Amino acid sequence: MALNELKSVTAGQETLPAVSIGQWRHKHVLDLDDFSREEINLIFEITDAMVEVLSRDVKKVPTLRGKTIATMFYEPSTRTRASFELAAKYLGADTVSLDAAKSSVAKGESLVDSLRTLQALEVDAIIMRHPCSGAPYIAAQNLEISIINAGDGCHAHPSQGLLDLYTMKKHLKDLGGKKVVLVGDIMHSRVARSNIWGSRGFGVKLILCAPPTLIPHGLKQMLVECGLDHVAIEHNLDKAIEHADIVMPLRLQKERQQSGLISSIRTYIRQYQVNSERLERANPGVLIMHPGPMNEGIEISHEVAYSSRSLIEQQVTYGVAVRMALLYLIAGGKNR
Hints:
Strands 9-8-7-10-11 form a 5-stranded parallel beta sheet. A 4-stranded parallel beta sheet has the order 4-3-5-6, with helices on both faces. It has a two-stranded antiparallel ribbon with strand order 1-2. It contains 13 helices and 11 strands. It has 2 domains: 10-153 and 318-332, Rossmann fold (3-Layer(aba) Sandwich); 160-305, Rossmann fold, CATH 3.40.50. Strand 1 (10-11) and strand 2 form a beta hairpin. It is of the alpha/beta class.
């Protein structure tokens, strides 16, 4: 397909709406720090077309027919892995799904050798998750094919950052001046990092709220040095949540509960759980998001998670459409 246009293509009676894609310069999707606002808006324009495809009875177009997309996950995943695999299949691609625990990795094969094996099998792109921060960058440096980072350690989760921002835009329209609160384990959250980079340039006021022990050392200085003046840090959730338009709690991982970074789970719940009482401080139309999986009763109450203001299930649906857009741009939207 031509680089300057996402053309209508036919699958029986189904077509993919034509969307102008302009210039796309990315071979890989490793994080959002090198994406401009214009490029993110391009992804969202294509995502709109993919949402329309997902609304059909037959959720399939042949846009990536003849392409092969591989997933290589070194960590457990439900939402991300399933949505990438569904995204590839809905676009007509073949998929190869490898579980690192059952692959030659278990026999001592290195990351690069495993990925080079996939490249030798002539896959068109690899979607990878790895517990070590920076692993997708090593892959990108050593392979000729495209790499999409599905989460690396505590570093980045770009597709999650994109689907979070897309969800916000779909429900709030103009994000200028909107207050978004991320609350929880900021220190170990790759989701928080990708949201920080992805939201810059959109006029969002992003508040990071956590106990001091769950805020990365030197974060405030880094925000200044990187010109991320749309981000602020607040330790008091009651204060942070005042006049908020969106509140997104982050999962408190069990290892953080046992590592001494919080005094007790009971104290954390009392000070940082997003519940109905606390949301009374926010704007009347405040919306709730969560990247999943949720620890109900810890970072978020059950009644809030399943209330009418919750966008959590919508995030999952939009996640497939966003990943369809990324796969199109990476595997099908460029001249080869």
